[in-house]
């Protein structure tokens, strides 16, 4: 018998997001500073200079064509920026698997569009995109995914109030087929 336990609290939800996105979004690296004598090490926020977002432009319908837009924003100037569809997840791309954006200036968003033919059958299609560009310190790469669910979400969430009064979303954890 399989038991299901809900993931409670912000830490559970954050851990799930990290676990799902970690293979697709390489972490930026920072210089390591030796720990002070007290043994306490602080950790600051590390922002990747490249932001990628995938937006479906059409309804997700089995057997239909979906246009997906990949938005790219950089906090530094990048040259030779390309967006590639590296995992189709059972969807058939209509056209090229890679698009060149050329130069993407700091805080000047750019976009690439991909047309995708969805199969007539299937519950879930997982697309993976990779964005690469040349920055002042060398090559940068960032990934993004689009999880297409023609039947809608496989999970339901409900609002709960934690003992300390915080409002949280509780989502039942289960294995994804």
Features:
single chain, 177 residues, mainly beta, Immunoglobulin-like, four-stranded antiparallel β-sheet, 1 helix, disordered N terminus
Tell me what you see in this structure.
The chain has 1 helix and 11 strands. The chain has about 180 residues and is mainly beta. The chain has one domain (about 5-25, about 50-170): Sandwich (Immunoglobulin-like), CATH 2.60.40. Strands 2-3-7-5 form a 4-stranded antiparallel beta sheet, with no helix packed on it. The longest helix is centred in the first third of the chain and has 13 residues, at about 10-20. It is flat, with a radius of gyration of 20 Å. The two termini are about 15 Å apart. Residues about 1-35 have low confidence and may be disordered.
Rg for CA atoms = 20 Å
Mean pLDDT: 78
Tell me the CATH superfamily: Immunoglobulins
Helix content: under 10%
Number of strands: 11
Strand order of the largest sheet: 2-3-7-5
CATH class: Mainly Beta
Reading the helices and strands in chain order gives: EHEEEEEEEEEE
